[in-house]
Amino acid sequence: MLPLDLAIRVSGLSKQYTIGVRARRHDTVREQMTAAVKSFFRDGFRRAPSQTHLALDDVSFDVRRGQVVGIIGGNGAGKSTLLKILSRVTAPSTGHAQIRGRVGALLEVGSGFHPELTGRENVFLNGAMLGMTRAEVRRKFDEILDFSEIHQFIDTPVKRYSSGMYVRLAFAVAAHLEPDILIVDEALAVGDFAFQRKCLGQLQNQAGSGRTVLFVSHNIGAIRMLCQRCLLLRSGRLVLDGPVDDVIERYIQDVASRRRSSGTTLQPDVGDGFVLHPRDPVADLTLFCGDAMKFDFDVEAPRPLGDRTVGIGIKVTTPSGEPLVSMDSVVQRAACIRGDAARWNVRCDLGRLPLNVGTYFVWVFVNVYVNNTVKQYAQFSNAFAVHVLEHDVFGWGTSLPRPRYWGPLYWAPQWRFTPQDRVDGVAADAAMKETLACRDYSAS
Fold this sequence. Notes:
Elements: E1 6-19, H1 29-43, E2 51-64, E3 68-72, H2 79-86, E4 94-99, E5 103-106, H3 119-129, H4 134-148, H5 163-176, E6 181-184, H6 193-208, E7 212-216, H7 220-226, E8 229-234, E9 237-242, H8 244-259, E10 275-278, E11 285-288, E12 293-300, E13 309-317, E14 323-328, E15 343-351, E16 358-370, E17 373-389, E18 422-423, E19 426-427, H9 428-433
Parallel strand pairs: 3-7, 3-8, 5-6, 6-7, 11-17
Antiparallel strand pairs: 1-2, 1-4, 8-9, 10-12, 12-15, 13-14, 13-16, 16-17, 18-19
C-alpha cells in the first residue's frame, strides 16, 4: 500500500528489450506457413541471432507528493523508458511502480493525437485519455487554446500541423487538464525560444500549486531552475539521487570523463583530417577560482595550408553550451600560422578568468582568413573540460558560500559609496560611523 505522503514508488524496476530480430505479424494461417517455409530455406535450422538490451536495471526511488524531480543522464541512460513505464505506455520486465493520482504525460511530440482529427477533437480525445470528463475539458478549453496560440488552426486536422504546433497543443493539454502527476520528457526542445520560456513558466506554476512533476531534460539550466531534487541515470541504473546542484555536478564530471581519456587525440566535429593532440599529461584542467587558465596542444592538418593566414579560436562555454568568452588569435592580432607546416604547437594563456565553482568546456577552432573573410577549417567541440574548485578569492580567510543566483562568473568591481545629507532620517555621518559585525560565512 502506497503511503499517503507519496505520489510515486518505484521498486526494483527493470526493462529488457530483445533486439536484432524484426517482429512480423501474420494475420492468417497461410501467411504464417509461407513465412515459416521462407525462413527454413533462408536460414535452415539456424536460429536468427538476437540480443537483449537492459534499458532499466533495478531502479528504485520514491517521490513525495508535490515534489518536482528532474531526471538527467546521457542518451540511452533509460530516462524515456522510465517515464513510459510510469505513464503505463509500456510494462516493466521486473519490479513495479505504484502511482497515486491521475497522470498527465507529454512524452513525445503529438503523442496520443490522432492525425485525422482536428486540434479541437484531439483536445477532447486527450482529455478522455487522461481520465477527464467532457465537462472538465470544456471548462479548460479556452485556457488550453490561449496557451497554445493556434486559434486559427484549431479546427484543422493535426496531420497538417508543424512539429512546433504539435508540441504547443500537446503541452497545453497536458499542463491544463489538472493531472495529479505531470510527466514531461524532452518534447519542449521542439518549440521556439519564446514558447520554451512560456512552458517553463507554466511548469513553475504547476510546481508551486503542489502538483508532482517529473521532468526529463538536457537543459541543465531548466533542471536547476525548476527542480528541488534530481536523479542521475547511467546505462539504465540509478547512480545518484540527491540535491540538484550535486547531481548536476556529478553528471557534468561523468560527461567530461567519458568524453576522452587523458592524453588521447581528438577528432573534430567539422574539418575532416584535422587532429588535436593535447600536450599536458592530463588534458582536462582542475583549477581554483582565480587561477590562470593555460592550454598547450598541437593541431595537425591533413595537408599543409600554404601561405594562408590561419588563426586559432578558443571559446569557453557553460555545460549547456552557452558561450562565456571567446577569443581569436588573428582578430586580436596576437599570432597566426603561415607556411607549409602541417602541424603546429599552440600555447594559449587565457589569464585569470573569473569563473565560479563548476565545470566548463573549451572549444577549439581552426580558422583561415582570405581577404578579411573567415572560413572555418576545423571545430573541436568540448575539446577540454575545466573543473573550477572553491577558493577564497575575496580574502575573507575562508571560502564564501556560492549562491546559485551568482551565475557562472564572479566579479570584483570597484565600489564607491558617497554619504548624502541624510539617510532614512538619520544624519549621514552618524550612520557611516556605525560598525557592522561581519558574519562568519563559513558556518552558513
